[in-house]
Amino acid sequence: MSNSDDMFKVRDLFTLVSSKNGLFLSAENEYEERFLKNIEKTITTQIARESKKNNKIIKVGDEKRDTIKLGNTLKEFLDFKEKTQNEKLLIKYKQVAEYLLIYFGEKQLLQNITRKEANDFRSFLLEVPKFWKNKPELKDKNIKLLVDKKSKLLDKFEKQAPRTVDEIIKRTATIFEDFKDNLYIHNNPFHNLKKIDGNKAHAISWREFKEKELLSIFKYLESNNLKEEHNYLKFLLMTGTRRGESLSVLKEDINLNEGYINVRGTKTENAMRIVPIHDDLLDVIKEQLDGKNDDEYLFFNDKKLTSIYREEKIGTHINSLISINVKDEIKKELNIHSLRKNFTQELFLSGLFQEIDLKTIVGHSTRGNITDRHYLMGKRDYKKYIQNINEVDFSKYFKEKKEPELQLHI
Question: Is 309 part of any domain?
Fold first, then answer.
């Protein structure tokens, strides 16, 4: 904080921010917020009286806090992020902004969004169907109205996962924290909303593919001439990348000479890691690179998929192909993420990778590892990773093993 700014507690009730623009009181809960509103109203009324009494216009500010609307501030926030954030993160914020406008409307006053409204917004998100923008039956429908009326139309669709809703709320809290920093609101109603119960149970419900299941899926893709889908699933299986990471890989991220891929992280904005390329994956990558510019995606460059819902659309498409080839009772156990589990298990079972190696390759945090944090300091033998990856055998998922023929001795 600069010399012109100061912050201190006023009787342990409010935070007073002193700056060159004036003094500002910041509330820390709904009770304090209502109290501040009354103070602000009293001051505004008194200023109006003094203005009339002295026949002078006393300016309170270009924009009063109690007239600031959600639509304008969201546009201001997104305009700023467009100049400062990468495209991937900007897309996430745009998705959140869309949900906020659907639920609250552009004319919603920021000051009227309380903790209760924040919880109600989260409840609404839990009732929204997964990938609802891609459902023909929901096209041009008012999704909030359908949720409010508990429409039976929504019953046929799978709801958004709790962890997805938690991510939306997390980014919503970031947006409203920006509003608070700009003194548009007294407090952030989305701050410290607890994560939804059931996240853990949902996360562990996905399992790895069995050999026969993947054999069936790859055979189906091949027989139906779904070449790019076949290549994409093989890529996921042999790199262990997440859906968002794999769909963000550009031609310029591939280093065939050195045998690795620069994978852009989805957990943090600037995260990037190196994933070794298996020799059996080289033909797939070369085929996908053919004819592409450096700034084009490795997979699915269809112009129709350039919207902010590109990942969701591709994910829905791939998961539908998986569903076709597995039994009804296990459809809820398998999806794109299951391939990541197969990859991790194969590397572990090979005995060629230590725990820290596995975490590095799949993009899990090693922050809690004291040896790595204080001694290795992130240093890795990537050449060894590239050598060892070729010792891992993924062939069983593509070619069915033939049973040895019985020989009759007469």
Answer: yes
40 and 130 both lie in a single domain: no
pLDDT in tens, the chain (410 residues): 444 444 444 444 555 554 444 555 555 666 666 676 777 666 666 665 555 455 444 343 444 566 889 999 999 999 988 888 777 788 889 999 999 999 999 999 998 999 999 999 999 999 999 888 888 888 888 999 999 988 888 888 888 888 889 999 999 999 999 998 888 888 899 998 888 765 444 444 688 999 999 999 999 999 999 999 999 999 999 999 999 899 989 999 999 999 999 887 655 444 558 899 999 999 999 999 999 988 889 999 876 666 667 888 898 899 999 999 888 778 778 889 999 999 999 999 999 998 888 988 988 877 777 777 766 777 888 899 999 999 999 999 988 766 555 555 55
Q: How much is the pTM? A: 0.58
Same domain, 318 and 360: yes
Give me the number of domains the chain comprises: 3
Distance, CA of 35 to CA of 324 (rounded, Å) = 59
Hunting for tokens 């009063």 — which residue is that? 64
Domain that holds residue 236: 211-397
